[in-house]
Amino acid sequence: MINDIITEYCWDLNAEKERLYKEREHKPRLWMSNLGGCIRKAYFDMDGAEKTHPFDKLLIRKFRAGSDEEDKTVAAFLHKWPNGVLREVPVGNEMWSGKIDILVAQNEDFPNGAIMENKGTSPYGMKKGMIPRLTHCYQVLAYQKFLNAGYEVPAYLYYRCWDFYAQFEITSATDENDDFFGFGYVEFVGDINGREESGGYTFNLDTELERMENFWGREPMDTPGYDSPFTESFACTKSSRKGKKWKQINCLYFGHCFPELAEKASEDRLLEVE
Ligand code: SF4
């Protein structure tokens, strides 16, 4: 009973958000949150394609848990700097769009301000060191690039789940003397539950922006892109609580890419893996 009331509340909040979104005229956009992810999904978002598998109540509730964590971060910041925090700050150009979760003004802790992305995550992901994800790093670095503050505002990722947390500063680095990785890379430094953690990815934001920009203004994308949604793809499906033999459809556009499989799926979006 209690659970149903909360789930319905989250569902209604999301329905209202979707309604407002649909009322707006669709303008093709590339979303910074899609950087590092499936190019077809980025393309479908840009094109305003029909969502064959909209989020269900369970997922909406999970997303809400992430928003609740963000609310707590903002409340703590506003408590410390009553006039020094902005939320949902739009950044971009005629092609790219993004919204900075939290933008902190210059203060004693952040002398150059701070761009902050608050992510809800699972304890499993945190324990297994699956963070920071490259897509999240790209996202905050893109915010930094498009903010145009006149100076570089540091970019941070903050993950939270129960009493688990992780925090990282994300930077782009270039080593022009490095023949192999001379194009640059993404670095992170911070801690997971107080344990120092640093590292990087040998990928580069500008190359990733270009990869996606290649699809700007193209004709609708019809080909599946990958042979299988189980082995080669990004987030087409996810593991299911029912067991290893089962996968659950996890992408809004699954029906465009794998129509035959979409037809075979059960009502709760489960697919049996051969
Ligand atoms: S179903 Fe898979 S390939 Fe298709 S858009 Fe989604 S993530 Fe990309």
Tally the structural domains. 2
State the CATH architecture of the largest domain.
Alpha-Beta Complex
- Flag low-confidence runs: none
Q: Which CATH C-level class of the largest domain is it?
A: Alpha Beta
What is the name of the CATH topology of the largest domain?
A: Lambda Exonuclease, Chain A
Class derived from helix and strand content: alpha+beta
Order of helices and strands: HEHHEEEHHEEEEHEEHHE
The average pLDDT score comes to 88
Indicate the proportion of strand residues.
Answer: 25-35%
Radius of gyration: 20 Å
Number of strands: 11
Helical residue percent band: 25-40%
Shape: globular
Structural write-up:
There is one protein chain. By secondary structure, the chain is α+β, with helices and mostly antiparallel strands. It folds into two domains: 2-223, Lambda Exonuclease, Chain A (Alpha-Beta Complex), CATH 3.90.320; 226-274, no CATH class. It has helices at 2-23, 39-47, 57-80, 123-127, 134-147, 205-213, 254-257, 259-264; strands at residues 30-31, 85-92, 96-104, 114-120, 155-161, 164-173, 185-192, 195-201, 237-240, 243-249, 270-272. The strands form two sheets. Strands 1, 2, 3, 4, 5, 6, 7 and 8 form an eight-stranded mixed β-sheet that branches. Strand 9 (237-240) and strand 10 (243-249) form a beta hairpin. Helix 1 crosses helix 3 (57-80). The radius of gyration is 20 Å and the shape is globular. The two termini are 38 Å apart. The structure holds iron/sulfur cluster. Iron/sulfur cluster binds at residues 38, 40-41, 44, 225-226, 229, 233-236, 251, 253-254, 257.
